[in-house]
Amino acid sequence: MTDGWTCSIDGCAKPVAGRGWCWMHYDRWKKNGDPLKVQQIHGDDTARLMSYVRLDPSGCWIWTGSVTRAGYGQMQVRGRKRYAHRVSYALLKGPLVEGLELDHLCRVTSCVNPDHLEQVTKQVNLLREAVARDSAQAAIGALADLVAEFRDTDLDVSDAWARTITILSEATQ
Question: How many domains are there within the chain?
Answer without folding.
Answer: 3
